[in-house]
Amino acid sequence: MARVKDLWFKTVTDSDGALHRERTARHGKGKRWLAVWTNLEGREQTKAFAKKTEAEKHGSMMEADKARGNYVDPNGGKTLLSALVEGEDGWLASLEADPSTRQIYERYWRVHVKPKFGNREIGSIRPSEIRSWVQHLTKSLAKSTARLVLRFLEHLLNSAVDDGLIAKNPCAAKSVTKPKALKKRIQPWPTERVLSMIGELPDRYAIMVILGAGCGLRQGEIFGLAVDDVDFGGGVVHVRQQVKLIEGKQLFGLPKHDRERTVPLPDSVAAALQDYLARFPACEITLPWEELTGEPRTLRLVLTSRVPKAFNRNYINRFIWKPALERLGVIAKDRPTRKLTGRSNQTAREHGMHALRHYYASVLLDAGESIKALAEYLGHSDPGYTLRTYTHLMSGSDGRTRKVIDAALGSEDRETGTEPEQAAP
What's the pTM value of the predicted model, to 2 decimals? Predict the structure, then answer.
């Protein structure tokens, strides 16, 4: 229960056992009355007031807020954001995510959030500061990335709200507008370009195009495809893992969204794959599973380098994929003055290996495949996302609409809903 303490007087017992009041060293200095209560962890919390009634009211409010589940620690806002995020008990350490996602969040924190707000008390961060910070982000980052960084900070401060350290999240203020990137319509590669890439790439790498365009696999899933996951007799490919790159080191992990799936294996892709394996037999590759310190797992991969090792996306993107695009004239030749790594190597992101998945989707939709089936084949967790991404590729809908309306309204003998005129006598 809450109580009130008098800071100016104290009760003492004299030598004969009588009680009387004495002035404290603080008498006449500062606020006299101290509200005392316990927080959710059972630790005492205090706040001083000039009037006793104000202290009593505050203590009662704290107890009521605890009972209602609305308690906010008055001193919680003094917590530094870095103390909330870092350390053994911090947000990052408790994050349940795959290594690649954790690596992204750690970069958001280290590069964008910590320099601005890391040494700030969380209760002092204002929406106006966040608005200014977001404007600064959009000058150096794509709007879609700036939006993700803002969402990351919002997650951090949501945890502070959940812990009762602050009452509300400044990122959620109506005045804080989230950056909106212009949604570009995907323009799938024409079949001629897909075939040209197959012919342009060296024999060891051309199968990447066939698997991407013919089965809709992601780059990491192509690199992680094991020969035991290919069911030639059943005509399917089981997508069970991918090759990830964390801190420059490779590991095996589940496909995106931790969703294994099965996709059809077209006869043409099966034939190309069998021919490829005859020339480049599958090799056993051992990598840790899910974490860099994870249990080693050995798989017979379809695609391996000459060493042999699993394909490394940094090497493939920079030295295999991009030069082929340049030779075909798809992108202009780029001679960077500094060393670039990873995805930044691709001058035009829309022409990365992900373009093969868009091609796969466009071919299936043009043939009348359902959105639900396409979402399953692509490994999308939400068919609605698939629909929003590819709805403009669903050809023929306008023509079908015209035919349906013409069939309903185009007959000359249709009833008009009015009585026919009487024949003239």
Answer: 0.72
